[in-house]
Design a protein that fits this description.
- The protein is an all-alpha fold and about 90 residues long.
- It has one domain.
- The model has no long low-confidence stretch (mean pLDDT about 90).
- It starts with a helix and ends with a helix.
- The protein contains five helices and no strands.
Length: about 90
């Protein structure tokens, strides 16, 4: 239960911060504000899902201190194979 409340609080804080950024750039209370916030959440969801899946497929990425650095070390062929495994 505590985890849920913490997640909810963090989500509301993120939304408030995004609304503040939109307002600072003249997009407050505009239809585009909703689009921007929705796109940010969609990007975050897809990014988190990608990271979760590649760490599930490659244990060395899960164990790495910085998974992005380790992923950049992959050759083009290794990276392509990893992407094909994601498709399955």
């Amino acid at each position: 239960m505590t985890t849920t409340l913490t997640f909810e609080r963090q989500t509301k804080t993120l939304i408030d911060d995004l609304k503040s950024v939109c307002a600072n750039y003249g997009l407050g209370n505009d239809g585009n504000e909703f689009k921007i916030i929705t796109q940010v959440f969609l990007y975050k969801f897809l990014n988190d899902k990608f990271v979760h899946e590649i760490k599930r497929l490659e244990p060395n990425l899960a164990k790495a201190e910085n998974w992005e650095v380790e992923l950049k070390k992959y050759s083009a062929n290794d990276y392509e194979m990893l992407m094909m495994q994601l498709s399955e």
